Amino acid sequence: MSDAEPKYKQIGSRPIRHDGLDKVTGRARFGADYALPGMLHGVFVRSPHAHAKILSIDTSKAESLHGVRAIITAADFPDIPMTWIPAGPTGIDFGANARTIIAKEKVLFHGHAYAAIAATTIEIAREAAELVEVEWEVLTPVLSIEEALAPGAPILHEGQETEGQGDKPEGDTNITNQIVFDGGDIEAGFADADVIVEGAFVTPMVHQGYIEPHACLANYREDGTSEIWASTQGAFGVKSEVATITGTDSSTIRVIPTEIGGGFGGKIPVYLEPAAFLLSRKSGRPVRMTMTREEVFRGTGPTSGSRTWARIGAKADGTLVAAETRLEFEAGAFRGSPVGAACMTVFTPYKIPNFKIFGLDVVLNKPRVAAYRAPGAPIGAFAVESLMDDLARKLERDPIDLRMQNAVEEGDLAKYGPPFGPIGFKQTLEAARSHPHYKMKLEANQGRGIAAGFWFNAGMQSSATVSVNDDGSAVVRTGNPDIGGSRVSMALMAAEELGIDVAQVRPMVGDTDSVGYCDVTGGSRVTYATGMAVIEASRQVVDHLRARAATIWNVELDSVEWQDGNAVATNGAAEKGSLSLAEIAQQMRMTGGPIVASASVNPPAAGPAFGVHLCDIEVDPETGVTRVLRYTVAQDAGKAIHPSFVEGQFQGGAAQGIGWALNEEYLWDADGKVENAGFLDYRVPVASDLPMIETIIVEVPNPLHPYGVRGVGETPIVPPLGTIANAMRDATGVRFYSLPMSPPRVLDAIDSSDGAKG
Fold first, then answer.
1. Which end of the chain is more exposed for a tag (fewer CB within 10 A), N or C?
2. Does the pTM of the predicted model rise above 0.90?
């Protein structure tokens, strides 16, 4: 990457997204919009217990109901052993995935499905579900980390032993994995500290809160092939999971990703698709399954609840010398919490020579967790950024200055091993410090908070195909479902390389039979990795176009350059002039046929991204109600391909983090039943709850990408928990160690304190 800022014509512009018209007019087809002739409607039969053995299931009454065409239980699935494979922030276990979809030996959370029914109408299917008879042996549920770790606790999985590093408990346990990272000499580091701050922090399970519920349509055909339309973040993942979980040849399955109404990691796992597939195969009819909102909350993966203890030591001048943390994460019914990612990110923004990080993955009788936007990192940042604020107060330091003094920079080692390349953490801190927001005066009962956050950003596998039409326009085909505007990002990159306007590029999301393999849409990887494939394919197309121009002019290829969408003759052939892309395309038939190029990439993880958030709040001392007055996000995007969508990612992450900090939590009764399984009682922020979130795009180019892209989707949700907690401390004088900071809790804390601001 040159030191001089490259001059782009398309990159960095703000065109209307190609799918925007269909989205705003309602023409876009989401998962539940698909139907086929003769289609049946499928429903799950779900457990009323949080923990119980299944002694027997009798489906005879349900089967005799007129209109019922198929019923499946775990007996219809092959027996897949539970084997955990490290991959991504939560890992993969096909056996656990199968048992999450349909309970086998016992149910492990309230709402755990143990059968599925397909009928001619949804009403008949639901009536049949009431007729399924089960003999249960109800077991004591494990509903908290404290209960799961207590001596003599009920064990969810017999024979489960703790894996990982360090000294591990012996015998059956609810601890599935433990993680240790350390460096330096932790005891010597704290002995050298002049000031030490510490605290124990608690966060509840929270849901991603996507608006569109899970939906799919499966059609098993007479020739043994099948089609599945799915609202998913990864069609190829659905194909692999359905094949493995149902014992089917993957080559017979075609998955078509529908438009997706939000995911944030929660639509990476499969829940409906294998069941719909088997119901279709058993009935010989297409089967559509759509979750209710209650089912989404009870039966899909939230992110972990947690307990975190941490302490940080510093010299009197503010230099950090030691840090230690213990992170305990709820995995839900099966292993796979994002505690590993939390361990890797928790202290990463800061230079700390002596550190120890210990993490536990703990199973308990709650829904199995799934990824949620920078999985694990917000929980770790809540603890560390709260303590950094406490440290700044003890040292009487400006909180941004303290972070700037200790911020990692290029060449520093991340706590999980590798050195950082070019990063923009200090630039984001400076951007926040220089912003007018940071200089605004506050009034009574108002407070300001600041916090920082970090996420790796993923690489992984992607492919793309670029083809030229005979009018000079182009088509880009990739296999990544578009959640946050990736279609227009792909089009912008192709347009930049081809030298045409983005309106002349049609970006398409293909199915698993029509495009090359692409890993999931997640991890902030699509614009980075799939974009690299689009750029490479586009450059191959440019090479073809140059060759066609050389053929037309009858000159050597070296005598043709590509400039602003035109083939330009050089090297003694300048008299030939130039040919536009459209002029070359019109002569494809005479110069060699269609112009098409494909590329595949498997790049390393994208350049890490750092963000810094500012927030002003006002707390009503009479009611405990918190109002967000102003919120600003500064983040290093590397290069903003489409600045509007980058800003949207910043704003969306902040909004979700504000909800997590102030209102959102799963509520459970004593038997492990979810008491607030709907948006009426599970309170996510709406427009009236939030100010216009201001954004600052910092651009420190990532040298791994041709345009410097880092990926932006994960990092914005990392700082808000700490940001809001620090603002609450500033407004009320009370340090909150548990989330959410809901009005009753805030009011109770104010009433039980002396009210003095420190």
1. C
2. yes
